[in-house]
UniProtKB/TrEMBL annotation:
Organism: Leptospira yasudae
Organism domain of life: Bacteria
Entry GO CC: cytosol
Stored InterPro entries: Tscrpt_reg_Rrf2, WH-like_DNA-bd_sf, WH_DNA-bd_sf
Record-level Gene Ontology MF annotations: DNA-binding transcription factor activity
Protein name: Transcriptional regulator
Length: 139
């Protein structure tokens, strides 16, 4: 698992804080403390799902495609397509008692956990994250 989902929420929160105005991938990368190429890859995934748009030209950059209240974390999670619960990339030894059974057993557990995760993410919108950021910064 990578941190693309967390980075996506970070950059979308920045865009939400500056709703109606653009931010460049360089500005976003500076806040995340990463390379702008990483940010552009994530923005491309978000753009494909209609979460962000970009504007070309001297005042160009990225902005939210819809209000933060209409973007939930499940939508972002699905756009990033980064699964938290994954099997090992190699098949285990099927002759081993554990290797034979582990994947089907864990698949059931992971599927249940995935459903709970997605339900929770669906209940949280980007606006609530942004409001918490503003509240946190006043401490």
């Amino acid at each position: 698992m990578t941190s693309r989902f967390t980075v996506a929420i970070h950059i979308l929160s920045l865009l939400s804080l500056r709703e109606g105005k653009t931010r460049t991938s360089e500005e976003l990368a500076e806040s995340v403390n990463t390379n702008p190429v990483v940010i552009r890859k994530i923005l491309s995934l978000l753009k494909n799902q209609g979460i962000v748009r970009n504007q070309m030209g001297p005042n160009g950059g990225y902005y939210l495609a819809k209000p933060a209240t209409e973007i939930n974390l499940k939508e972002i999670y699905e756009a990033i397509d980064e699964k938290i619960f994954q099997m090992h990339s190699k098949s285990p030894n099927k002759k081993c008692i554990c290797g034979h059974a582990i994947q089907p057993i864990l698949t059931k557990v992971y599927d249940k956990a995935q459903k709970v995760l997605e339900e929770e993410l669906g209940c949280t919108n980007l606006d609530s994250i942004t409001r918490e950021i503003l509240s946190f910064s006043k401490r």
